[in-house]
Write a structure and sequence with these properties.
Length: about 140
């Protein structure tokens, strides 16, 4: 199967005490949507974000045989393909002045969609980690 990028940007509420990042339930819901969209088993590579390490998310992972998770060692950005994805997004958005949060959201979604439609970019981000089974390039 081709590599895929599935994303769900989240705009946080500007209310005092409102959560500004994904909860374990948000990650669970993303996994469910990815599973439904792909129609088969999925493999997720987690970094050591505290939300990825919650007991609830680990329990959910253990209860679903269609879900395989791989945990990266602590502080290993060179092994995390998401770092390369964000690098591509940042490059495309450099020197852009966003006038509203909605403007930022539209541009972010546009750039992620561009990557999503180019599996070779996703493969490049995976290959850069040296964690793939891609054949070695000839010298």
């Amino acid at each position: 199967e081709p590599s895929r990028l599935i994303y769900r940007p989240r705009a946080h509420l500007l209310l005092k005490g409102a959560r500004k990042s994904f909860s374990w339930r948000d990650y669970r819901d993303l996994l469910v949507r990815a599973h439904l969209q792909l129609g088969g088993p999925i493999v997720v590579v987690w970094d050591n974000l505290n939300t990825h390490l919650t007991a609830e998310l680990k329990r959910y992972e253990a209860e679903h045989d269609w879900l395989t998770t791989i945990r990266l060692p602590p502080y290993a950005p060179d092994l995390n393909p998401v770092e390369a994805i964000w690098s591509l997004v940042r490059r495309a958005m450099a020197n852009t002045a966003f006038d509203t949060p909605g403007h930022l959201d539209r541009i972010l979604r546009r750039e992620l969609r561009k990557i999503q439609l180019r599996p070779h970019l996703i493969d490049g981000c995976l290959t850069a980690t040296r964690l793939t089974l891609a054949p070695p390039t000839p010298p």
